[in-house]
Write a structure and sequence with these properties.
This protein is 45% helix and 17% strand. It has one domain: Response regulator (Rossmann fold, 3-Layer(aba) Sandwich), CATH 3.40.50.
Length: 139
């Protein structure tokens, strides 16, 4: 059990990001917390990864290679993946994208700086924000 977030040790967290520097920072933080990060760089890979019932997914809403808001909308619209907690992030001035992510069903939307500075608290919040562990059943 992860003491900081409450997720089982080794739980997979999908990271949808096409920014190598930011995804490296996120995956390092996830690994330090005991998660097994899986980085995806496109929509099809994200959909496949969500189908494996990860503990959560972290999505760069400002990615250039995919539409993060569309990924959220699709994930929350699919009965097989809607229980996966989603954490979206983008720049603090990108209010329209943040609002669109909330409207699409993102469980938590944060700024880039907040994700960098406080990922454990955000994961604890987003994983606790849904009944995903109970809904997913045994891994």
């Amino acid at each position: 059990m992860n003491a900081e977030t409450g997720a089982p040790a080794g739980s997979v967290v999908v990271v949808a990001d096409d920014d190598v520097l930011f995804s490296t920072r996120i995956t390092a933080a996830l690994a330090a917390l005991g998660y097994a990060p899986v980085v995806v760089r496109g929509g099809d890979a994200f959909t496949r990864a969500l189908g494996r019932r990860p503990a959560a997914a972290v999505i760069n809403l400002a990615a250039r290679r995919f539409d993060g808001v569309a990924l959220i909308r699709d994930a929350k619209g699919d009965a097989a993946t809607r229980a996966v907690p989603l954490l979206g992030f983008c720049g603090h001035r990108d209010l329209a994208r943040r609002a669109a992510a909330h409207q699409a069903g993102c469980d938590l939307v944060a700024t880039n700086g907040t994700v960098s500075a406080d990922l454990p608290r955000l994961l604890r919040s987003v994983i606790g924000a849904t009944d995903a562990p109970a809904a997913r059943g045994p891994a």
